[in-house]
Design a protein that fits this description.
Oligomer: single chain
Number of strands: 10
Shape: globular
Radius of gyration: 29 Å
Mean pLDDT: 87
Order of helices and strands: HHHHEHEHEHHEHEEHEHEHEE
Strand order of the largest sheet: 1-2-3-4-5-6-7-8
CATH class: Alpha Beta
CATH architecture: Alpha-Beta Barrel
Length: 397
Amino acid sequence: MSETARSSGRSRAKRLRWWNRGSGVRLRLWMAVNVVVLSLLSYGVYLLANSSSEPVYQGLGVPAAEPGLKDRLTSGTSTARSTVPQKASFTAPEGKYFGLSSTQIPWSSKKTDSLAKAAGQRPTMSEYFVNWNEDFDPDTVDASYRQGMLPVVSWQPWAGRKYGTNQPKYALAKIADGTYDAYVTRFAKTVAAHRWPVVIRFAHEMNGAWYPWSEQRSGNHKGDYVKAWRHVHDLFEQAGADNVIWLWSPNILRPVPEVSLAGLYPGDDYTDWVGTVGYAVHEKTAAAVFDPTMKKLRRLTDRPIVITEAGAQPGASKAAWITDFFKWLGKSEQDDVIGFIWFERDREQGGGADWRFTENAATLRAFRRGLAHIDLTGSADLSTSGTPTASGTATTG
């Protein structure tokens, strides 16, 4: 080889860069890049898991846009969070609440949107059930607020329906004597720490005999219910849970006319709202269902009234009853009725019958038209968003 060729080879060798110097260097570089990428991904997951749980709340009846990945990653430091509303902003609404109780609400925004389109109005309340073997779940409350709904927790002191109507483990006297203080206090402290207002409908339909917390079941005695309610309320006060709206809600008098509501009412110092549960079974009018109970409630207290479950049994007169319900609700005599919750469930979903307003085209049409004439609080009007269908959706065009 000539001297010129050797010199040229040495020059090329001198010009070799570090990335040409073997697989060891390249491997170390590749590993370093992977460490950086994995670190960034891990940090992102950490932020997602530990970001603020506060919902984006834009008002009653106004659903918030789902947060994107960037929003979630920056939520831990973002200053653009919702201001936690005060309890007082909900207790005396301008207009009436339109609430829904459905198996997928408030967890499924798709279900809420579907029923809102069917009804022609956005719901402003969501009602769901929590048993006494379950803790308070802030995420469910957040889901409700993100969809523009005030959460209503039906808090049931039992282990569930499958254990029957006699459950002495949850006897009212045990609640009052402190047996469940640890559970109630834990529940209350979580509610207080979360800060967002929540309605608690504790031990509803207590005047009936179909739940274990009836004074006729589980070894309970007359006077036990009020003692249990007041004790639970006092524990919440001690825990600082002043963001609770207390809702006392007996059943309508029709099946239990002999049971006195006065002996079951905890008193104005222990309640914010009162309510009732009522379904049309054979009645032709809403007045026949609700008026006898309303008279009793108004004699007891001047607290605002919420119909916490409403519905009508299937049949030829269901659509007509729904029409009459909204006419009754819109009368000046019902000005103290600040809202209603429709029990949008059939037998398979836990209803005693198919109470749904979406049962068929006639019931859906009657509900949509009737609701449009009610002065609602904060609810967005969707009455022109499409043509309702009996499946609970709306079609456009």
